Amino acid sequence: xxxxxxxxxxxxxxxxxxxxxxxxxxxKFYDTVVREIKNESPTxxxxxxxxxxxxxxxxxxxxxxxxxxxxxxxxxxxxxSSPPRGDNRIQLCVALEPNGLGTPYLFNEVKAGDVLxxxxxxxxxxxxxxxxxxxxxxxxxxxxxxxRSMLLDAFNRGIVKRDVHLFFGNRRTEDIxxxxxxxxxxxxxxxxxxxxxxxxxxxxxxxxxxxxxxxHYLRCFHDSRPATFYLCxxxxxxxxxxxxxxxxxxxxxQIKIEIYN
Length: 261
Fold this sequence. Notes:
With 261 residues, the protein is α/β, with parallel strands linked by helices. It folds into two domains: 29-119, Translation factors (Elongation Factor Tu (Ef-tu), domain 3, Beta Barrel), CATH 2.40.30; 135-260, Rossmann fold (3-Layer(aba) Sandwich), CATH 3.40.50. It has helices at 102-108, 144-157, 179-188, 213-220, 235-247; strands at residues 29-41, 44-50, 62-66, 75-79, 89-95, 115-119, 135-140, 164-170, 192-198, 209-210, 228-234, 255-260. Strands 4-3-6-1-2-5 form a six-stranded antiparallel β-sheet, with helices on one face. It is globular. Residues 4-22 have low confidence and may be disordered.
């Protein structure tokens, strides 16, 4: 997956701005060292990048990597999956797209110790400084990346005052990224509720939710109570979710979107 560089809904007709077709000369880039590459699932890798100095960003933002690939747009955008810690490292959770340009290079060519050109933080898909309402996060695949950054940061700062629901759709159990971490948070934090949903190849011992995420968040919010929704994943899933939520009476300002393509 490659993240289109922005994300929030701006009008009823437009989910996101178009992807940039040319280089953005005003962006600042840094040389970052790849300190760790870790397999998160059969098709997803975690890349930990180290800057020379502390890297300041907001949870939910993304960076662009300027990759040495044969493309008119060699820059690829990836959400930061780690929360702000005031240090000089960030983590990117990247899913392999075999027919793409950026992810095959990252998966097949990049090794620990290599240097990647990484941009300044970008994007407005972030949480407010104070959270006084119920939140619902809906994601599929590596769409979970910005949510991990946002939720860990929010809980670390103690700004969560109402229930937070995370609906995470995947095909198989091995695709559930950060599963142990989410399950541990669900046990430890009374306000956090984790709902993993599997759509196919359900293991015999799976006792969780099945099908698609839509039926489950719709059931949870059947009463259309006040809430803000954060959505991240494939375009078709987001369009369907937005349509469902609008049909329940939620205003587009209550639906924040980051789209992968």
